[in-house]
Amino acid sequence: MGLFRSEEMCLAQLFLQSGSAYDCISELGELGLAEFRDLNPSVNSFQRKFVTEIKRCEEMERILGYLLREIKKSEIPLPEGQVNPGAPLPKQVMGIMEQLQRLESELSEVTGNKEKLQKNLLELTEYTHMLQITKNFAQRNTEYESRQAQYEEFPFLEKESIMDYASMQRLGAKLGFISGLIERVKIEAFERMLWRVCKGYTILSYAEIDHRLQSETGEETRSMVFLISYWGDQIGQKVKKICDCYHCHLYPYPNSNEERADVIDGLKMRIQDLHTVLHRTEDYLRQVLNKASESVYTWVIQVKKMKAIYHILNLCSFDITNKCLIAEVWCPLNELSTIRRALEEGSRKSGATVPSFVNRIPSSDTPPTLIKTNKFTSGFQNIVDAYGVGNYREMNPAPYVIVTFPFLFAVMFGDFGHGLIMAGFALWMVLYENDRKLKNTRNEIWNTFFEGRYLILMMGLFSVYTGLIYNDCFSKSLNLFGSSWSVKAMFEHGNWTLNTIRGSKSLTLDPNVNGVFNGPYPFGIDPIWNMASNRLTFLNSYKMKMSVILGVIHMLFGVILGVFNHLHFRRKFCVYLVFVPEFLFLVCMFGYLVFMVVYKWLAFSVKESRSAPSILIHFINMFLMQGDDIQPLFPGQAGVQGFLLVVAFLSVPVLLLGKPLYLYWVHKGRNRLHMYQGYERVRRCSEEELCLLRAHDMEEGDSHDSAMSSSEMQSEETDLADEFLHQAIHTIEYCLGCVSNTASYLRLWALSLAHAQLSEVLWSMVMRVGLRVDTRVGVLFLVPVFGLFAVLTVSILLVMEGLSAFLHALRLHWVEFQNKFYSGAGTKFNPFTFAVFHNSMDSEGQL
Amino acid sequence: MASCLFCGPKLAACGIVLSIWGVIMLSMLGIFFTIHSAVLIEDVPVSEEDMQGDAANALQTIYGLYNQVGYNCFIAAGIYVVVGLLSFCQVRMNKRTEYLVH
Fold first, then answer.
1. Chain A touched by B9 (CB under 8 Å)
2. Which residues in A have their CB inside 8 Å of a CB on B?
3. From the CA of B33, how many Å to the nearest CA of chain A?
4. Res B54 pLDDT > 80
């Protein structure tokens, strides 16, 4: 049936040999035609049969994720091609698992070593810096020392109150040094704390390191080298504790210059060695990752497929002999043979002697809805499904949406230039749709536009068409055929003179004058209206009438589509009791309105334009049953209107009561018939036939089963009350909805007016400013002005107005069109398929 | 051509699109101005004194203004051709740096 209705589905049972179950399901996954039902719903996920295998898969996924992250971190390029390996056989799985585990342990070991080495390097570098900087402190101290030596002989002449360390030595206190590094931001607090705690018995000197060091957390901080000289053991303990508190890195302070030089040399050598080792380690790491990167995508897809297959195997149940797996699938009826072939292939691949087979079973559940789409129709089907997936075998609105949606969009968007740009953009996306970079980006908004590229192409092309009809191209009209209005004729045959022109601000061309109006413009709206100041008055009338006409036609189409639903589900009485009153109601009221509009267009010409009747007044009078004192539109109007009104009012009670009363009558009749049917049933051939018959009835939507019992009779009565209520709601909704939905279509007028006005404002405020400059240099002004015009056109008129018109057209379809025939309460067919895994890689390499 | 790359790939692509649109639209505007299309009357810088004088003179002045705006449009279209070529070169240079081995 293709696009018109969903496919016919059947419930089938698969009998899989336990040896070949894995391969068969792998084949089915490649096909993507079967939706598996869960046969163990009461079992939780930890008690299912294949839980260990799934755990193994998840372990492998974890390792693969770690691998991918490491590869990305070291910026190794991953192979770009599309890989599509099959699901691995169980014997290959152990091999893959071993490889992955080996890789993981190697990687973690190497990375751990690298980190240790880097930490060592950092410490050594800090120590070197510290030694170099404290050399300066020591030099100052030694200078001081040499000067002080002269006054050794004359201690009491020494009046200085600062205790230099030489005099301290005489006092017998032991001088100690603590040196190390501290972060620069902490140095002031550190100093203050030292002063307060040690009360001046310490001397702190510090200096900044010139270049930044990498601290342990990997950030780069500025550090200061400090040197604390203290005397006394207790002070020493306090100082050490304070240093711990401020997270200083302490290093041993050399006692003499020679020692310092030795240490520095030794450090230099060690640092060089460490650099070499680090370099080698990084090289090795890169090598390992390079080798892994070749096959990592293949492994990822293989593991995913394997995990999916085990999930499906968990949904199956074992039969009594425990040698055979049973699975229940929904599949399209005409694909049963394909599934059979896939099972044979799977059995062959696994080398099983007993084949697996598939068997159709009858079912009374509602099957899921599958509609086969190609890349063009899938966009339109998606927007229909977004409202609700159709019921099983219900009429699908999508094939009509392919035309009506772009058309209604274009009515609201109608601009030749904007349509061209939109179509150009969509054409570019369509032509480059196989480009992998475009397909595989993860940007949500871009993906939305890309998925709808055919939709946008249609919308653009239709907008070009309506742009030509409205004669609007970037808010200017195109004069392709020569205007039908002639101003000269007003001078020749009318009463205009040059003085008339000079004397008035605005003049009106009178089409009644001979030669002024030469018939309608061949295609679209006459370009002269672009320069008229009463342009909106004319266009408003035209667009409003057009909106109502389009709306009534659209709704009528929806009502007619409902007939096909009624006929398919064997509800012929609905055609007479539901469709006919609905149709009559809509046609008698709003069909008549459309008729009046078209009649007025055709029957009244320019000569009677001053006295042409107002349709609005006539329509209102029709309902108030007045109108004797105004001129009729056509002879016999009162009679026709009265007749239509009566038909419309009569169809309401038919719609309200017809279907429930009929059903009530049918059931009463069935009650009496049932006594005879009971004898008949005994004589029936087999139970199976009855069961299949009932299933057949179910498929056709006949919800009234023929088996009756007393309890069912009671439920019948509640069903009847339900029916009455349901039908009452439907009637009210339909009748009131007719009025409100028709008015709702006026948004076609409103949005096209908004678009045209926005376009005109943009031109007059931006482009006109650039065009009106008439100085020599001013021509350069036009270039940025055009750039601004282009940017604003794209952002405001294309994106904003486009989205707005899209939304409103969608609403018109979802509410006003679909609530005439579509219920949309089905479930979507969700087959087991591997197709999603191929495109799941993105540029960041995330799974 | 030493690396005079001053915009990334996306900006250069926008530049190309804008230039193509600019060239087409401005040249068409230029054509319509030079054939004195009536729909564009509001965009021509007509001032009050142009409307004085007798009809033939006023008409010629207005035609002259039309032609002037038309030539402006053509010049702007020419500038957009230059911008387009520049963007195209930028796009080509961006593509070349993509193939370079880091």
1. no
2. 417, 421, 474, 476-477, 479, 498, 527, 530-531, 764, 767-768, 771-774, 778-780, 782-783, 786-787, 790
3. 11
4. no
Q: Whose CA is closest to A585, among A405, A709, A731?
A: A731
pTM: 0.81
DSSP line for chain B: ------S-HHHHHHHHHHHHHHHHHHHHHHHHHHTT-GGGGGGS---HHHH-S-HHHHHHHHHHHHHHHHHHHHHHHHHHHHHHHHHHHHHHHHHHHHHS--
Q: Looking at the partner chain, which of A476, A786, A790 has a beta carbon nearest the beta carbon of B40?
A: A476
Chain B contact set for A787 (CB, 8 A): 18, 22
Distance from CA of A294 to the nearest CA of B (A): 19
- Is the CB of residue A656 less than 8 Å from the CB of residue A728? yes
The answer to whether the CB of B1 falls within 8 A of the CB of B73 is no
Using the Cα atoms of residue A751, residue A754, residue A756 and residue A759 in order, give the sign of their dihedral: negative
pLDDT digits (tens, 9 = 90+) for A299-339: 888 888 889 998 888 888 887 777 888 889 999 999 899 99
Tell me whether residues A774 and B45 touch, CB distance under 8 A: yes
* Tens digits of residue pLDDT in A180-212: 888 888 888 888 888 888 777 788 888 877 766
Q: Most B CBs within 10 Å: which of A765, A783, A785, as the mutation test of the B interface?
A: A783
Taking the C-alpha atoms of residue A655 and residue A738, their distance in angstroms, rounded to an integer, is 14
The larger pLDDT score, comparing residue A434 to residue A598, is at A598
Residues of B in contact with A479 (CB under 8 A): 37-39
C-beta of residue A189 within 8 angstroms of C-beta of residue A246: yes
* Coil, strand or helix at A226: strand
DSSP state of A328: E
Nearest by CB to A783, from B38, B69, B80: name it: B80
Those residues with Cβ within 8 angstroms of residue A328's Cβ, 6 or more apart along the chain or in another chain: A11, A12, A13, A14, A36, A37, A39, A361
pLDDT digits (tens, 9 = 90+) for A483-509: 899 888 888 888 888 888 888 888 888
